[in-house]
Amino acid sequence: MNLTLKIWRQENPSAKGGIKTYQVDDVDEDMSFLEMLDSLNEQLNTAGEEPVAFDHDCREGICGSCSLMINGQAHGPEVTTTCQLHMRSFSDGDTITIEPWRSDAFPVIKDLVTDRSAFDRIIQAGGYISANTGSAPEANSVPAPRDKATRAFNVATCIGCGACVAACPNGSASLFMGAKITHLGELPQGQPERDSRVVSMVAQHDHEGFGGCTNIGECTAACPKEIPLDVISQLNKDLRTAIKHGY
Ligand code: SF4
Ligand code: FES
């Protein structure tokens, strides 16, 4: 495939960015999207030009760092992470627009790399437990109802990629927060901080500049781990309960 790439280039956080156009030829349909960008960067290096900065780590759909808007969609046209997206999803002659995540709470560091440390601060505010669970066999000896354990496990698959924020017209991180609150709130070990957790995480979320949820649902459609929208209902329910308890 021969492709035209329109890529957001921005020298540093305060520089004015803009779209630049590149041509990449002989792209194999079995290449991952990031391998296609690697090949563009080899081309730029050979030409003595600055390669495009983009974030990645595991390239296995686990770490959540490969955050790109591709043709206006978070992680591109498939329900997966950018690193697990393959070039067979595109056609010869396509023009692909590649931008960083769109959110004031995720400022651009350089080119396609954004600062997602706001998520870390939300987790630091309350996304943990104080129960000493010991080693794995001891943790497994705490009985948990099967349906709750399964739901906790399913929502614990959130990798903190931020696609939900990038896709949301309000720039809300409610799906991410709801996944963490549901994961911990379903399990016995998560009960001691259940009230304080939701209050602290929501306060940090708002302080970081994320918007509120208005039930649009773009977040769940863009989520590579298919976190369901009802975790936001759980988040709101836990928040109402905490307020009733005087938090
Ligand atoms: S909820 Fe989904 S889209 Fe949002 S951070 Fe978690 S894995 Fe990414
Ligand atoms: S590079 Fe880790 S999820 Fe994509």
Structure commentary:
This is Succinate dehydrogenase iron-sulfur subunit. It comes from Nocardioides lentus. With 247 residues, the chain is α+β, with helices and mostly antiparallel strands. It folds into 2 domains: 3-110, Ubiquitin-like (UB roll) (Roll); 117-244, Fumarate Reductase Iron-sulfur Protein, Chain B, domain 2, CATH 1.10.1060. The chain is 36% helix and 11% strand. It has helices spanning 33-46, 117-126, 136-140, 146-155, 163-167, 174-185, 194-207, 218-222, 230-244, and strands spanning 3-9, 18-24, 69-70, 73-74, 95-99, 108-110, 113-114. The strands form 2 sheets. A 5-stranded mixed sheet has the order 2-1-5-3-4. The protein has a two-stranded antiparallel ribbon with strand order 6-7. Strand 3 (69-70) and strand 4 (73-74) form a beta hairpin. Helix 2 packs antiparallel against helix 7 and helix 6 runs antiparallel to helix 7 (194-207). The N and C termini lie far apart (58 Å). Residues 158-164, 175-176, 179, 223-225, 227 line the site of iron/sulfur cluster (SF4).
In summary, what is this structure?
The chain is of the alpha+beta class and about 250 residues long. The protein has helices spanning about 35-45, 115-125, 135-140, 145-155, 165, 175-185, 195-205, 220, 230-245, and strands at about 5-10, 20-25, 70, 75, 95-100, 110, 115.
Task: Please specify the SSE layout and strand pairing.
Blueprint lengths: L2 E7 L8 E7 L8 H14 L22 E2 L2 E2 L20 E5 L8 E3 L2 E2 L2 H10 L9 H5 L5 H10 L7 H5 L6 H12 L8 H14 L10 H5 L7 H15 L3
Parallel strand pairs: 1-5
Antiparallel strand pairs: 1-2, 3-4, 3-5, 6-7
Helix pairs in contact: 2-7, 4-6, 6-7, 6-9, 7-9
The structure holds iron/sulfur cluster and FE2/S2 (inorganic) cluster.
